Amino acid sequence: MQITLDNLKRSYGNLHAVNGVSLAIPSNTIYGIIGRSGAGKSTLVRLISLLESPDAGEVYYDDLRVDNLSKAELITRRRRIGMIFQNFNLFSSRNAAENIAYPMEITGMTRSEIDTRVEELLTLVDLEGRGTAPISTLSGGQKQRVAIARALACKPDILFCDEATSALDPQTTHSILALLKEIQKKMALTVVMITHQMEVVRDACEQVAVLNDGMVVEQGYVTEIFSNPQSEVTKDFLSHLVGVDEASSNSDKMVHWSTKKGAYTLRFRGGTTDQPILSRISRDVGAEFNIRAGGVQKVGDVEIGTMVVDISGDEDMQRKAIQALREQGVLVEEENK
Amino acid sequence: MSKLWILVFQSTGQTLAMVFFSTFFSLLLGLPLGILLSATSSEEQGGIIPHPVLNNVLGRIVNVLRSFPFIILMILLFPLSRLLIGTSIGTAATIVPLSIAAAPFVARVIETALKEVDPGVVQAARAMGSTNWQIIWKVLIPEALPSLVSGVTLTIINLIGYSAMAGAIGGGGLGDLAIRYGYQRFRGDVMLVAVVIILVLVEIIQVIGNKISARLIAKR
């Protein structure tokens, strides 16, 4: 199911929470929407998932306009949408299996159909035999697994994940993302992932839109955006990703040789990662590189190297060095400029 | 002496009947009202069909009824009792004002309990395509059940107190016994027995209510 947003707007009083968002979310993929808190993510997801109507603009699922559905149509449509949340939002009055059964109960499936499907779903999310567990006895990761099973109960075409991993620790986040990726493939779902964590986008999404002040400031393939960020917001997200070691595997670590921050951040894409670019340029131009920090990250299948360096030598040499770097396809960002 | 014990026995039966039936009817009136109050409140307060005007009007009616002194409400409702029961005196007739006096209390108790339900859970239920009825019956009420049980417990205890007061104007029951024999005939022992029975009733209800509520919470 492809989702198209056309110039969506939604304000609350003077606050333009979503201010003209147009996006094409392709079918059968995991699409990320990232933004800081207050960027309008929550409102946007409420608009796309038909929990709220826009002030202006249109939402299409495939070619069908869905933002102006009647009450009855809306309820039918919502039953084909799955949604998971940061706080899981499970029913505490029901155990795991009964939670998963709920969406099927409200659509009037028979008891035996429901029971069969609940067992299937418990297996799908690796919770076989935990059906009778009260929700309060489950860990955060298990709760989110129950929520995923519940969201998938009625075989939806779309799954919305609203900060689904924000309340989880890095390991659990990792396993939930792996599960979501597996399910996406198995069920050919369109998954829309709303998050403020760049790690989530890096580990799970194929494409991403960056949201700021209710507008899309950047969008495209995750590999492209990681190697060549355009907007300040995106760069900021990326710098936090590199600087703070929250990621699960060691290869994401940024190693700092000195506590001083370098003047230039260099980003090496794919093929350039394993070539001796720096030493070559250093020899050709005469400038010297002092490496302060560095690391390699895997984005999808592409490796992106990041280095924080100082360039010594006279101004002319520095300029030439930067120019040479850029010619080699290295992205050069200057600090505070 | 044995005559007095029979009287105590009868009065206890009358009190229990008054409390039982007025609890039933006050729930019958108060439950829909409480659901309506919670459902029509603003979205921020968890209302599923926000309707500020209706909510305001209902809220005011409930407040007026609640702040009415019970003894005056009873007298004002004599005609209604006469219409429904055929008399304004006696245990059966007292159930009418008791139910009406307790209904707004029940409504507020139910409203408060339903509003305590996590709005995120309601949002999830809505996102799954629940109708408003399904949200009320399959989500809000089950989720709020422990608080609802506590609320009903509180209602019953209040009604035991009210029923004693109702005895003073011809309703019978333990309150009536305490006043007619204990106070007017200077029988301190009768007064004591009536009061002790009322205290024991309250205690039993409280303990049972707490147990049910605790068991519901423990299962979660």
Number of domains of chain B: 1
| Category from helices, strands and their pairing of chain B | mainly alpha
CATH class of the largest domain in chain A: Alpha Beta
Characterize the main sheet of chain B: none
- Average pLDDT for all residues of chain A: 87
- Provide the residue-averaged pLDDT of chain B: 91
Order of helices and strands of chain A: EEEHEEHEHHHEHEHEEHHEEHEEHE
What does the model show?
The complex is a heterodimer of chains A (337) and B (220). Chain A is α/β, with parallel strands linked by helices. Chain A has two domains: 3-227, Rossmann fold (3-Layer(aba) Sandwich); 249-334, Alpha-Beta Plaits (2-Layer Sandwich), CATH 3.30.70.260. Helices cover 35% and strands 29% of the residues of chain A. Chain A has eleven helices and 15 strands. Chain A has helices at residues 41-48, 71-78, 96-106, 111-124, 140-152, 170-187, 198-204, 222-227, 232-243, 277-285, 315-327; strands at 3-12, 15-25, 30-35, 56-61, 64-65, 81-85, 158-162, 190-195, 207-212, 215-221, 255-256, 264-268, 288-299, 302-312, 331-334. In chain A, strands 6-7-8-3-9-10 form a six-stranded mixed beta sheet, sandwiched between helices. In chain A, strands 11-13-14-12-15 form a five-stranded antiparallel beta sheet. In chain A, helix 3 (96-106) runs parallel beside helix 5 (140-152) and helix 10 runs antiparallel to helix 11 (315-327). With 220 residues, chain B is an all-alpha fold. Chain B has one domain (2-218): MetI-like (MetI-like fold, Orthogonal Bundle). Chain B has helices at residues 2-39, 52-67, 70-76, 78-85, 91-115, 119-127, 132-171, 173-183, 188-218. Chain A binds chain B through residues 49, 51, 75-79, 81, 83, 85, 87, 89-94, 102-103, 105-107, 134-136, 150, 154, and chain B through 118, 120-121, 123-131, 134, 138-139, 142-143, 145, 219-220.
